[in-house]
UniProtKB/TrEMBL annotation:
Record-linked PANTHER family: PIGGYBAC TRANSPOSABLE ELEMENT-DERIVED PROTEIN 4
Domain spans labelled PiggyBac transposable element-derived protein: 2-321
Pfam family, one: DDE_Tnp_1_7
InterPro entries from the UniProt entry: PGBD, PGBD4_Znf_C
Domain of life where this protein originates: Eukaryota
PiggyBac transposable element-derived protein 4 C-terminal zinc-finger domain segment(s): 382-424
Protein name according to UniProt: PiggyBac transposable element-derived protein 4
Length: 430
């Protein structure tokens, strides 16, 4: 910490590139990436940043001043990058017709007041994030981080409840444009469907049978059979699969479609058209979670807000990947895209001058840097030719030897030959 050197934008890009590269070269500990063991040595990490420099940047990584923190703001420690990144998400793309909202989870098992448990997610424990995604491109348009009672959603219509308010906050910029929204049973309700339909937005999703305004559907059904009720703008379908599935839609008809498969007796498998389109459209967020499992650049034993920051970086990487495929039409794997991105960051920002200067400033003592010249010890009021004790002789040979020469810059006595050279070129001379 005493040898801290300020980080500039170029070095921060290199730091993030190294962190992303770590996700493609999994090791148990951070220091293992700089190991000189021939069995695991990877010179690429030491080429662009020293181990000590990387660790001190990671340790000092902060995004706010504690004295400026707003009381009660649970996301204050990550507010700045969260605002910048989500703003860029919203401005980067005009979405296609179909949108989807679902939940994602950032793994966190430590103590945190708004930590959540979702048994259907890969991690199960962590920070819950509501995600709005474009179905066509998998591009993430906006996110809301769940922080309990302080979650930042806009309460506009009391009949929508908390889940409806989350949907309304995420979808608000895209209302009255003819979009089609797909949601799961935590969000959907008849009141939300009517609210969105009035704003020229269709909705399809699974729904809980005990939601307020749901019709009573209780007929005895065999597997594959359905029953339904509808209003002028809304249809509710109960489909008997392995269990009852309730679907609510303002978009699709009460119709069964062939999914292209057959049962063991050779009979065609049919599904309600709403179920088929729902299954096809809810994939992007689950797909995002799957892709993140391969690119996550978070490390153990770091603070929750740093882990959340690195998750935002990963989401940005996935969005860049989606935008690249959409704009170029090229088919490229996520791994190849990530490696190419890292290469371009190193090429643009990791200059030789930066690497050498950062290493010397952070790792080497002052006596091994700069220009040093031998000088005669200046006279004093008591002695015209004073002498000083040679520091190298004292440490190396454990004996006293006086000399009339010294280094003015380092303010130490040194024999001109060979101690002066040893002191200014060798890190350890004892």
């Amino acid at each position: 910490v005493n040898q801290w050197v300020d980080v500039d934008c170029e070095e921060m890009f290199v730091f993030l590139a190294i962190t992303m590269l770590m996700a493609r070269n999994k090791k148990l500990e951070i220091q293992d990436y700089w190991s000189m063991d021939p069995l695991s040595h990877q010179p690429i990490f030491g080429k662009y940043m020293s181990r000590n420099r990387y660790q001190i940047i990671l340790r000092m990584l902060h995004f706010n001043q504690n004295e400026d923190q707003v009381p009660g703001d649970r996301l204050a420690k990550v507010r700045m990058p969260l605002k910048e990144i989500t703003t860029n998400f919203k401005e980067a793309m005009i979405p296609f017709e179909n949108l989807a909202i679902d939940e994602s989870l950032v793994l966190w098992k430590g103590r945190l007041s708004f930590k959540q448990f979702i048994k259907t997610k890969r991690h199960r424990f962590g920070i819950k994030i509501f995600v709005l995604c474009d179905v066509e491109t998998d591009f993430i348009l906006d996110i809301i981080i769940y922080t309990g009672s302080t979650t930042e959603y806009k309460k506009t219509d009391p009949s929508l409840g908390i889940s409806g308010a989350v949907v309304n906050t995420l979808i608000k910029p895209y209302l009255n444009r003819g979009h089609k929204l797909f949601i799961d049973n935590w969000y959907s309700s008849p009141s939300l469907a009517n609210y969105l339909h009035k704003r020229k937005t269709n909705v399809t999703g699974t729904v809980r049978k005990n939601r307020k305004g749901m019709p009573a559907l209780s007929a005895k059904l065999k597997v594959g059979q359905t029953e339904s009720q509808h209003t002028k703008n809304m249809l509710v379908v109960r489909w008997k699969d392995r269990r009852d599935v309730f679907m609510l839609t303002t978009q699709f008809e009460d119709k069964m479609v062939h999914v292209g498969k057959s049962d063991h007796q050779g009979n065609a498998i049919l599904k309600p058209v709403a179920v088929m389109h729902y299954n096809e459209s809810m994939g992007p967020i689950d797909k995002t979670d799957m892709l993140l499992s391969s690119v996550e650049c978070v490390r153990r034993t770091i603070k929750w807000y740093k882990k959340l920051f690195f998750h935002l970086i990963d989401l940005s990487l996935l969005n860049a990947y989606s935008a690249y495929k959409t704009c170029t039409g090229l088919k490229i794997s996520l791994a190849d895209f990530q490696f190419q991105l890292i290469r371009e960051i190193f090429t643009k920002y990791a200059t030789q001058k930066q690497n050498i200067c950062r290493r010397s400033n952070t790792c080497l003592p002052e006596r091994l840097q700069g220009r040093h010249f031998p000088s005669i010890v200046p006279p004093t009021s008591k002695k015209s030719k004073p002498q000083r004790r040679c520091l190298v002789c004292q440490n190396k040979h454990n004996k006293r030897k006086d000399t009339t020469y010294m280094c003015i810059k380092c303010d130490v006595g040194l024999c001109p030959v060979p101690c002066f050279e040893i002191y200014h070129t060798q890190e350890k001379f004892d």
